[in-house]
Amino acid sequence: MKLKKVGLGILLFSVVLAVGCSNTADDKSKNSTKKDQSGKNLADEQVLNLVEIAELPTGDPALATDTVSFTVFNQVMEGLYRLDKKNHPVPALAKEKVTTSKDGLTYTFKLRDDSVWSNGDKVTANDFVFAWKRVVDPKTSAPYAYLFEGIKNAKSIMEEGADPATLGVEAVNDFEFKVTMETPVPYFVSLMAFPTFFPQNEKFVTEQKDKYGTSSDAMLSNGPFVFKGWEGTNLSWKYEKNPTYWDKKNVYLDTINVEVIKETATALNLYDADKLDLVLLTGEYAKQYQGDSEYDVETEARSAYMQYNQLRNGQKTPLANENMRQAIAASYDKKLLTEEILANGSKALTGFVPPSLASNPKTDEDFRKESGNYLPYDKKAAKKYFDAAKKELGTEKFEIDLIADDDETNKKISAFLKDQIETSLPGVTIKIRSLPFKVRLEMATNQDYDLQQGGWGADFADPVNFIDLQQTNSPYNRASYSNAKYDQLLEDSKTIHATDPEARWNDLLAAEKILLDEAGISPMFQRAGATLQKSYVKDVYNHQVGAKYTYKNAYIEAH
């Protein structure tokens, strides 16, 4: 019997706003200088205050699916690898690069012997063995378990009830970790920087039972910072420098305070008053500051798209009708959305996989360019599709609800979509439900919606990270989309074509075409972040894939 995977990989619009030292005449301690060994001019007080616009859903790396959680884990935990400033995976708990067999089926990691948990225990190979077996165990219901499928016996454990103890992982000794694959996975090493692959302390997790990851007290740290002050539902927490971290000499911040604030205007007012160091801008705010010396735009490996739920409460929705999906997909102007509503550097997206993520292994052509353009804005086509849908469904009127996060940006997008769809498709009424982040995740997981403003940020630099999402049994196929040919192409890319880069690439191109030709989803935009950032905040790493931010090397420069 196949495991029914549950979970939600919504990585929409989670952003941090960095707050550093205020620039006031009496703030002498923050403006004084102390140089470290690398010559950095450090402010005496290394305190950073961050603002998140969404709640933290979970502190359990096995259960997390969102940017907020992964950002937390990237500060307070560490895996075999970590992403550097250029988004390259570099050894972290692995003391050297992994040794890989010629056939790509065996990976041997030598671990550092000086890494400890915040309870004083050594981090050992068994922590990885335990964590990975826990993730693939169906009892855990880990949404990202599918990423382990290339490992020996992982699929049989997840889908056929095999014993998790048979997973192809082994602690050769305390500081040597061996992984045996069933099929080669070309991007396997890059996954080692992703939080779902981080170690977990077996004794602590077992003792905590169901409480594990529900508060900062029910979590352990082995990363640059320890986690404090999160009670599970409150909207604030902090990171404190970990005194036992193996690389603490390269961690400069003493404390990072985090609070959830959702209003851009509030953050911008604080920024203008020199109370905030970094603020994300959209719409009129972004237009206002273009050309400012502190203004910057970073395009991200993130796709925003419309998710069409085809099955709700056991009943087919109007969106199970392909003509209805095609009508909605053609009804909204992506260029208008990005240039006038967002105005933050985001670009209209013409497919599922965003540009600049991956290139053809033979020709080096970008996946997005080679795959082509799908589902353009076309009001005449929208009306034609809608007329066909009304005839097939036997009704002229449709009330469709649209769920999205309740932050300011998503509210603007929702209002835009409502206006565009209702104007293009007379007879459709869009009912907007703006929900707290955690609530929306639950509603989407339960498929208790019609339309959703979906989104995905790349966990690793490969098109399969997006194409995988809409496979019939994917935990992120939260809309009951299903196509047997699509599923087979994905399976081929992971099995018979796993070691044939060109054939694998063609599988993924063909799969995306099927999905978009059927309007299984419809693209909106490739996300970018327009920001204002003070010059004295240094070395905050903004990653294009995986966990969004790294503060390990960040510091406040004396000013």
From TrEMBL:
A single MF term (Gene Ontology): peptide transmembrane transporter activity
Major place of residence: other
Subcellular locations according to the entry: Cell envelope
Annotated Solute-binding protein family domain residues: 89-475
GO CC term, one of those recorded: ATP-binding cassette (ABC) transporter complex
Keyword Chaperone: no
UniProt keyword annotation of Transport present: yes
UniProt entry keywords in alphabetical sequence: Peptide transport, Protein transport, Signal, Transport
Superkingdom, taxonomy of origin: Bacteria
One Pfam family this sequence matches: SBP_bac_5
Segment forming the signal sequence: 1-18
Single GO biological process annotation from the record: peptide transport
Similarity comment: family membership: Belongs to the bacterial solute-binding protein 5 family.
Protein name: Peptide ABC transporter substrate-binding protein
Native organism: Carnobacterium divergens
